[in-house]
Specification:
Layout (H helix, E strand, L loop, with lengths): L21 E4 L13 E2 L31 H14 L2 H14 L4 H20 L3 H14 L6 H17 L3 E5 L3 E6 L3 H4 L2 H19 L10 E6 L1 H8 L5 E5 L3 E4 L8 H19 L5 H11 L6 H8 L20 H22 L1 H12 L4 H9 L3 H11 L1
Parallel strand pairs: 4-5, 5-7
Antiparallel strand pairs: 1-2, 1-6, 3-4, 6-7
């Protein structure tokens, strides 16, 4: 066997689907106290592992029939390269062969499990639920020791619910969007063109705001409309959630003809889709949710927002950098989202929209949002935050 280094795939944290899942709360039926603007679903992280070298002097195991002379270490390393470039099927095929040859090799097995999880996510993003569940279930069968096993099991349960709910769905769309809804929803069937037109206009507006289309080469973005009961059953989030982005835009719609609230929800989740496509998890939570609330349309009721944060010490930006899904107190979550929107509004009013864009695009290019903001405004972000807190 040639001298080789065994590469254990360095795992990238994964979430619901391909991206962190972001929610918008359902609006309250009447004032005076509006519902919280947004909340997120807890990301389902896939654990992170280190590169583990394997001594090239280790005695090789006997090769299975027909594979004599195969360098399994080299094949594993080829598979990790396939994963980096996105050839998931080739990676799974090679790692399956490595695992079959050396079933006790923990590195081969762990890399195979990660490849299967990535393949499952990719298939789910394409709307291929059957093809997504097969590799996910295989990954669960092999990856009993993974730290995120419970999260992956919940993901599988959600996908199975999604498959069941989608058995009577109708899909239509455009080059940008794939709209899916229950065939029994005559209100959507008769006005689906209105939804698609709204999505297309909103996409054009967001493309102008961000300055680019992050979805090229073009893969239609999936948009799914649900009865509130089905949405609750799918997400398990309760009747407070109005929409979620988890690689697809999912919105709870009671009656499409009864109001226009669905329009803001679609835009809100579409903003999250843009941010995810542009910069992924590098964008802090406060900027992501604040921007989605800002761009969804409509004038925020500033006095209601200020009332939520008044009398409380503002959360440090570091406390709002990640997901708020682990937070337990509804009042604290409402304050966090109100604070995020108020701070984003302050940054726009004081430093211009370009400051917000620079933070997003800087995160995409590897510059921290704080550094991108300071480079644009010549003001440290923390100092701007302190000025904002004094303005309260």
């Amino acid at each position: 066997m040639r001298s080789s280094r065994l590469l254990l795939l360095v795992l990238v944290p994964a979430c619901l689907g391909a991206a962190a899942a972001w929610l918008l709360l359902r609006a309250a039926p009447a004032p005076p106290v509006p519902e919280p603007p947004a909340a997120e679903v807890a990301p389902l992280p896939v654990g992170r592992q280190a590169v583990v070298p394997l001594s090239s002097h280790a005695a090789p195991r006997p090769a299975p029939p027909g594979t004599a002379g195969t360098d399994w270490v080299e094949l594993n390393n080829e598979a990790t390269t396939d994963l980096v470039v996105g050839d998931l099927a080739a990676a799974v095929d090679k790692l399956e062969r490595c695992h079959a040859a050396e079933p006790d090799n923990v590195v081969f097995r762990n890399n195979l499990v990660e490849a299967l999880v990535r393949l499952a996510r990719a298939e789910h993003e394409r709307g291929r639920l059957v093809e997504a569940l097969e590799p996910l279930e295989r990954a669960l069968a092999l990856g009993s020791a993974r730290a995120d096993r419970d999260a992956l099991e919940r993901l599988g349960e959600r996908w199975r619910r999604e498959r069941e709910l989608g058995s009577d769905d109708w899909t239509e769309g455009s080059s940008r969007f794939e709209l899916t809804f229950d065939t029994e929803r005559s209100d959507i069937l008769n006005r689906s063109h209105e939804v698609l037109e709204h999505l297309e206009r909103s996409f054009d507006e967001l493309q102008r705001w961000f300055g680019e289309d992050p979805f090229e080469p073009r893969t239609p973005l999936r948009v799914l409309l649900y009865d509130p009961e089905d949405f609750d059953r799918l997400t398990g989030l309760g009747d407070w959630a109005a929409g979620v982005f988890d690689g697809a835009v999912r919105v709870s719609v009671r009656d499409l003809s009864a109001g226009t609230g669905w329009r803001a929800v679609l835009v809100h989740e579409l903003v999250h889709a843009f941010v995810q496509a542009l910069a992924g998890e590098a964008v802090p939570g406060w900027l992501n949710v604040g921007l989605a609330q800002l761009l969804e349309g409509g004038a925020p009721v500033l006095e209601h927002l200020r009332a939520r944060v008044r009398g409380h010490e503002p959360y440090p930006l570091a406390a709002l950098a990640g997901s708020l899904a682990a937070w337990k107190e509804p009042e604290a979550i409402q304050r966090a989202y109100a604070q995020s929107l108020l701070f984003v509004l302050y940054l726009r009013a004081t430093f211009g929209e370009e400051a917000l864009r620079r933070m997003i695009l800087g995160a995409r290019d590897g510059t921290s949002p704080a550094a991108a903001f300071a480079a644009w405004s010549a003001v440290p972000l923390e100092l701007a935050f302190e000025d904002w807190t004094r303005s309260l």
